Amino acid sequence: MTSEVIQTEKGALSRCRFEAEAAVASLPDFLDLLGNCPTETLVLDREALHPDFFELRSGLAGELLQKVSNYRRRLVILGDFTDLPGKALRDFLYESNRTGKVVFARELGDAVGLLR
Question: How many domains, in total, are found in the chain?
Fold first, then answer.
């Protein structure tokens, strides 16, 4: 894993990148990552998340996002989300972006604009 801190107008962000796909496959993986994050905002690429994250029935997204809320952090997930099926998932992404605590965006600049 490589990590860098990026300064933005919305505060410092910690961008973590992984060599292997799906580095975050469980709640303990995510808690370790969140606990070691030196900033309020963690930035991950879509590929870092296990595909179950985008299967809302799996509960993985709910578990991870609840921890983001509990620890009063923000999460940015970068990638192309146009291929994700289902109205419920699209609604989930829309509502997340609207609240600004968990943001899904193609580019970091777009994500920073959505953060609150």
Answer: 1
